[in-house]
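This section describes the prediction task in plain terms. A model, or a person checking by hand, is given the sequence of a single protein chain and must write out its three-dimensional structure as a string of tokens. No templates, partner chains or ligands are provided. The sample shown here is typical of the held-out split.
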Amino acid sequence: MKPKLFSPLDIGGVTLPNRVAVAPMCQYSADDGSMTDWHLMHLGSLAASGAGLQMVEATGVTREGRISHGCTGLYSDSNEAAMKRVVDFCRRISRSPIGVQLAHAGRKGSAQAPWLGGRALAAGESPWPTVSASALAFDKDWHTPRELSAADLRGLVDAFVAAAARARRAGFDVIELHSAHGYLLHQFLSPLSNRRTDEYGGSLENRMRFPLEVARALREAWPRELALGARITGSDWTEGGFEIAETIAYAKELKAIGLDFLCITSGGVAAAQRIKVVPGYQVPFAAAVKKAVSGIPVRAVGMIAEAQQAEDILAAGQADWIAIARGLLDDPRWVWHAAERFGVKLDYPPQYARSHPAVWPGSKLARPVDDKAGVAA
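The expected answer:
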């Protein structure tokens, strides 16, 4: 029987050839929001991975909505042209759909790249003013954001729609709305970061209001023959934070708006979070959403590193597909090796065909076969 990992999946008007997605991974290597040759190399390599969907990193819908000076954006003609260059390049390598994650960092913006410390930008590092649901800093020594007004929120909805139009012109098949990891939409959802007393704060219905306004506007703007989804949080991992019951309520609202898929992650809104990182530690959140919200594909992510682990998640009905991030940085041929393990025929780019296990005896040296299981160990 063909493994579920290598069965096709429909998300909206887009068909994925298999159920492995390249997760969006920030590279902190853009120039004023515009992709560089690093992105050409990085995404070009992952386009050859064999994954069913390739997602581009969190991309700011405004200049101030980026995490760092090196983050990508879709707020200028230059950004759009640079991103289209990379998308066009990837199209020449892979027939799999390509997506982009649209985001606004909110109070977690104006930050250093991780390898520079990942802290808030200092006075000499060209910081910019940040914004959020409430005027609460992410952590000590972080910038205190300005609380967004209702007029500001209307402008940000327009910014998401404008970025979606640029994404369409750049050639993307999929948009993923970033509503997790402690960035702006998540800042509205979580009571840890949202202390507003107007119609955008307080009850869950009010805290969901702005994220749902963005989702609704994107659904109206983004073609139905393509795909629109969201990455949402399953837990803040902090007492008094956003938890799975609220996640399910939010997921139901997103489905009602007409989104085509959900990716369930967790954490990022509170510096004091205590995450218990173990293999598949976020999968129970995906499973809970999938059980409670029928009729929308749910993607699992988080310490899914081995092919049999991924297949078991799908076979158990905990999720409909999976996303791989650091596992693909470690092994850009993860999908090829998963196919080899399960005996699935996967076409390689012709330039690499001579490394296919069907014609290269060295594959058995690189990945010894377990005689009992009959698969690569």
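For orientation: The chain has a mean pLDDT of 96.
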